[in-house]
Structures
1.
Amino acid sequence: MALSPYRSSVPAGSLRSSTVVRLERPLSMGSATKQAAAAAAAVVTPPSRSKSTSSMSPQARRSSSAARSGKDDSGVSGRVRVAVRLRPRNSDELIADADFGDYVELMPELKRLKLRKNNWDSETFQFDEVLTETASQKRVYEVVAKPVVESVLEGYNGTVMAYGQTGTGKTFTLGRLGEEDTADRGIMVRAMEDILADTSADQDAVTVSYLQLYMETVQDLLAPEKDNISIVEDPKTGDVSLPGVTLCEVRDQRSFLELLQIGEANRFAANTKLNTESSRSHAILLVNVKKTVKAKQDRELVVLNENVSNIQLSKGHRIPTIRRSKLLIVDLAGSERVDKSGSEGHTLEEAKYINLSLTALGKCINALAENSPHVPIRDSKLTRLLRDSFGGTARTSLIITIGPSPQHRGETTSTILFGQRAMKVENMVKLREEFDYKSLCRKLETDLDRLVAENERQSQAVFDAEEEMEAKIQEAQRSVTEAEKKLATTLEEMAAERFRFQKEHAETVHKLEQERSLREKLEKELKENTQTLHVQKEKQMQSERARHQKELDDRKQRHQQEVMELTKRLEVERSQRDVLERKLQEVEHLVKQKGKSELGGQEQILLLTSQCKEQSHMREKAEKELQDLRSKTALTTKELKEENANLRDDVKSLSHDLEEQLKHKKTLEHEVKTLKQQLLQLSFEADETRKSLDREPARTSIGSDSPLMNSHKPIHMRESLNGQRATIAKLFEQVGLQKILSLLDSEDMDVRVHAVKVVANLAAEEANQEKIVEAGGLESLLALLQSSEDETIRRVAAGAVANLAMNETNQELIMVQGGIRLLARTANEAEDPQTLRMVAGAIANLCGNDKLQGKLREEGGIKALLGMVRSRHPDVLAQIARGLANFAKCESRGVAQGHRKERSLLIDDGALPWIVSNASSEASPIRRHIELALCHLAQHEVNAKDLVAAGALWELVRISKECSREDIRSLAKRTLGASPVFQSELRKMHLAHD
Ligand code: ADP
Ligand code: MG
């Protein structure tokens, strides 16, 4: 009894092809499985092989040799599985075979089939599956085809083929579409269902070709015009291909059914055209399955890489694996033709071709089953097409169909025997797996391109970044350099600034110090001045009050006296009236006593009465006067009282004013300028005081050009003065000349006085004179001289002008600005000898200018000079004499130079008498100037007669003899000798000069 090789490991009816395939997989197959397979091969011994069980089949030999060589290339032994299916009786058979017993007996549980030869003889066959007439289409698929389909999906080629007499149900088993009844669906439909369920439309591909083989011609059932498709075998791999055949990709079951229908329709049309039947042709459905294996285990890769050792794979790239497998479903032509072709009226040729393929298939299977060294594969197109299915690498299932009728006993038996032989065919199933180098290459190229592009981008980015960085660094360096430069400059500037600030600070501190001390001093002085002023005002007010009081008292007294006098007069009048009244009474009495009145008496009475009336009238008048006087007195007293009160108010308001002024003064303290001026003032006053102390010794000097000059003062005095002037000069620098000059116009008299003193003091220094004149000081001084009522101002201003007049340019300016007229006016008006001394000094200076002589005289300069002799003050006289001497000297110079011919202007203006009378003055400065003047006058012969007439000759003679100055003495002598007039006069007096 032969046993299925699977029975030992798989329960009947639930064979899982995956289990089978797993066992056969080269990588997972252990040695135990191999042994089991080998054992199975030994156990299953079909009857035809019983005689040669000891010898090894070619497959077994191949298999063992492959195992020995250790190569997986040859695959795993896989015998062709064969199932038998019995068709149920059709209606005809039910009738025809009613008298016959069962010819075929099935023992499906034993997978055995018994063929009853006759009543006493039967033959039993072992199959892989025995499917009874009741077996469902589903069960048939699962038992026969499903393991092959699963195997195909795992990468192995597979073949499902039906073999049997026409009408036994081959097409029913394979090609039923099951459109009416789903349960009727055949193997093709069910196989495609499983394939589509196990593949993905994205990554995998399922294509279908549908062919018909008839009379050794392959026709494309999906494109019937292709009716001669060639079969090409790869000489290396032995793989069969059909160039030009239609490959339809199947995406769903519906499209597949459509394809099958198209194929069937085309098959039917083709058979009609050829006048044949479908049972005479072979139908072949070719399903190509391409599956991508997703994640290949590293372990597997390593093993695979042993074969592709040259390929270096990066870690991230696993080789994609694809599995290309084929499923062939073959519906063979009816097997009865093999034997009956000739007997059914076919042409010999036709019969030959019709049977050729099936005959060849039988021969090949026989050869394979018997391990024959020659397998005539190339004898027919069918065997060429099925090259891999029998004796190849495919997993093959064969279903043989038989009918139940004993009428077809022969066909049934031959079919069963074919199946028995096929069961002996061993295939070497082989995984159709290959590395998808193309897709790997594409992927790697894509990756490479992407990486190259990315690299390029990054390189560019790096380059850009570097450039940017470089630019930034340069920019930063530039900035740093600039910043450093700026810093250095700033530091330098700051240092300079700091130095300047320090300097300024020191200067400011110094100035402040000075100002503070100055202010303190001024405050002190102000205080003193205020006190003095206060005291003076107080005194003034007291004296005023006293005067008013006295006046009031006087008036009171006077009024009282008047009242007393009037009272006295009233008393007298009253007594007179009383006397008169008494007289009147006496008279009246007398009249009464004597009786009759006498005419004379009456007249006397009338007279007395009129006298009395008159007296009474007078008395009334006197009383009225007295009354008036009294009321007047009262009124006056009242008035006086009121006046007194008014005076008190005045005093009060004056005090108030005084206080206000004091306040005002205090508020003016900040006017440092004024205070500074006062300070200057005081300095000047001090100077003046000192000078006045010095005046006595200075007065004795002769020939001094300036009344204010100190050139002849004792040295110690000069030093002291110079020191003070230096102080003033310093202040002058600080305060500024312009300011000092502006103070000459000040409202404040004191300020004006001080200012003019300062200017005069400054003008004493030759260095300052030009500056003062430039700044308009001369005009201001002359203006003061003209307008000021104040004696001091005029004196000092004149002194200043005198000082300025020492300079020749200034002399002209003074003249131009009408200085002479002003000086002359001052000379005429002033009484103060010091003022006159200054004026005389100024004019004297002007007298020394050759160019100005005429104008000086015209504007009354000489007359003014001579007018001042009224002062009799020796200082004034000395200046007058100096002026006359200067004038005379200029004139004599003019004569000597030849542009002067006329008599001396001095003589014209009547200077001679005074000159002569003072020629022998006690005061030496006067005397010496006059002596000089006389000498110069005498130089010009035109003057000689006048000189003689004025008595100057005698003075000249005296000078020539007595003058203490040698030069003047000799000049006088020379002059006397040279003048003819003098000579003749002297001769007249017998005093001819020798
Ligand atoms: P074949 O292709 O082998 O010539 P068919 O498949 O055409 O045979 O079958 C012949 C007839 O038998 C058909 O009418 C079919 O329906 C019927 N037939 C075949 N097998 C079965 C079965 N197992 N059960 C019922 N009817 C069957
Ligand atoms: Mg058929």
2.
Amino acid sequence: MTARLASRLALLGQRTPRAFLASHWHKQALLVRAALPGFAGLFTRDELVALAGRDDVESRLVVRDGARYTLAHGPLRKAEFRALPARDWTLLVQGINLHSDAADALLRRFAFLPYARLDDLMVSYAAPGGGVGPHFDSYDVFLLQGFGRRRWRYGMQDDLTLKPGLPVKILRRFTPQHDAVLAPGDMLYLPPAYAHDGVAIDACTTYSIGFRAASHTELAQAFLDYLRDRVDLPGRYADPDAKPAREPARIGAAMQRRVAQALAAVRWDRATVERFLGTMLSEPKPSVFFAPPARPLARAAFAAAARRRGLVLDRRTQWLYDDACVYVNGEAHAWPAGDRAALAALANARALSPRRAASLSPAQVALVHEGYRHGYAHLA
Ligand code: SIN
Ligand code: CO
């Protein structure tokens, strides 16, 4: 067995992704000892505190005092941390994959699920006794232990009622069936709506690999926004057969019929839904800004440099595709002419070797060059 295959199997407790998805995904929790052997986290406490001080990083601080919780949203100043007690608090830093290549690489270890489902990597630092309390999440999550130990109690329960009046979601009743202490490199998978509570034994960090799953209402709202931006119907309301109004306040049946007819011209088909999905899923998070190169190479020089050095996508870039289009950070582009394999490899592996970059067609180079000029892709 190759080392790569061995580490892929270790991640899911000696299961292939296919076996894990069939037996556990959305179905039951899985505790994996030494999922990432030797892993002790990517960030120190001070690095997390520094990230929490930035206004382009989403962070939260949860402090527990008995059954009371207080919540503060970032940016958080260093002085706020100096004022904290020695125990019972936790700092959570969301979307850390957008700020660190190592964190992005860790998130993409889970690319046995499509990028369109991977949401972000959240890192929490907890002082001993710290945690966010017993709760449930609406999404699947892998909880990977960094340095230190954490006790997780978890289980499925029907009653998901929350305690009222608290700034964080806390279950009114918590009846866990499982109890485990996670050491560095251990990992716990929880399906959506599993009750769980992680309490730090030592000062510790936990890496949450989170997934995105829009509610049907969110999908419909986003789809209607998409349609609204593209709707373009000919004509304007007209009533050449108008009669004197006896009840001028009444909205007449003829008007209702005409408007219903006009609106029936709003149409969409499967292709509309596909374009909508690609643009929506590839839309970067609102906090994301790209840094275009200061002196971008012109297309020919860029193509020559890509053939020498290869290409890499910016870690913040969302680059997806379907049969009809390539979706780059919220924009749909019909597949440029040429063999699709190399461009698909760039999207999947998020990098392209010099040899494969040399096989991009001129139209594909044009698309990648456009991305490079925006800071979406870089020369390796
Ligand atoms: C944490 O890292 O403390 C919270 C993770 C979770 O329970 O979802
Ligand atoms: Co949770």
